[in-house]
Amino acid sequence: MAKEGLCEYLQSIGEISVTRRCTKCKKKSEINSPTNSNSKDWNCEISHEYNFLKCRFDIACLDNNKIIFGIEILNTHITGNVGAREGIEWVELTASDVIGKLSQKNVPIKLNFEDQKSVKCPSCCQFARTGFAK
Ligand SMILES: [Zn+2]
């Protein structure tokens, strides 16, 4: 339901922005879905393989058959196979949030969601790798 609805929304009229908060420094960042063009296509249930790891995106934006953006709809289970998703920008949204926003009377052409993923911002990742304080 949430999956098909959001996919249709993205394919036809809409775009989304997703607010992500760093788990360490709490800094917010905004991730925007790719804008539509003739070469881009939104699809449900797209399998993907990376470094022999497999995963499946609930929704993916393809550009010339290459995944450029992924969306996971969180129902009850936590997204697995995170390693297979490396190199692709993807976000995790709750099903109830998606359904709630898509069932508004006049759905705006841009919807904002909160990312459910636990991730650190680039500078906190940098710190974790090198140990250098900023
Ligand atoms: Zn941070």
Layout of strands and helices, then pairs:
Layout: H1 2-12, E1 15-21, E2 28-32, E3 40-50, E4 53-63, E5 66-74, E6 89-94, H2 95-102, E7 110-114, H3 122-130
Parallel strand pairs: 1-7, 5-6
Antiparallel strand pairs: 1-2, 3-4, 4-5
Helix pairs in contact: 1-2
The structure holds zinc ion.
Residues 22, 24-25, 27, 120-121, 123-124 line the site of zinc ion (ZN).
Strand portion: 35-45%
- Computed CA radius of gyration, to the nearest angstrom: 15 Å
How would a crystallographer describe the biggest sheet?
4 strands, mixed
Number of helical runs?
3
Unreliable segments (pLDDT under 50, ≥5 consecutive)? none
Class based on secondary structure composition and strand pairing: alpha/beta
Say which molecules are bound, naming each kind only once.
zinc ion
What is the helix content?
A: 10-25%
Average pLDDT over all residues: 89
**How many angstroms separate the termini?**
44 Å
Q: What string gives the helices and strands in order?
A: HEEEEEEHEH
Going across the major beta sheet, what is the strand order?
Answer: 3-4-5-6
Question: How many structural domains does the protein architecture include?
Answer: 1
Question: What best-fitting shape do the alpha-carbon axes yield?
Answer: globular
User: How many strand elements?
Assistant: 7
